[in-house]
Design goal:
The structure is a single chain. The protein is of the alpha+beta class. The protein has one domain. It has 1 helix and 2 strands. A two-stranded parallel sheet has the order 1-2. The longest helix is centred in the N-terminal third of the chain and has 6 residues, at 9-14. The chain is extended, with a radius of gyration of 14 Å. InterPro entries: SAM-dependent_MTases_sf. One of its GO terms (biological process) is methylation.
């Protein structure tokens, strides 16, 4: 399995190396490869301070 992770340009250069992951800087919509299907996930963390 291969994957792409998009981040802000500066963060993409400092991201740790991972097997099968290509770190790409910029907008994720500029770097979507041609394929039959795309699987996207969103991770949202909410921390409430009481």
């Amino acid at each position: 399995m291969r994957g792409r992770r998009t981040e802000k340009r500066l963060e993409a250069h400092s991201a740790p190396e991972s097997t099968g992951v290509e770190h790409v800087g910029g907008s994720m919509f500029d770097h979507v490869p041609k394929a039959d299907g795309v699987y996207m996930t969103v991770s949202l963390t909410l921390e409430f301070i009481t």
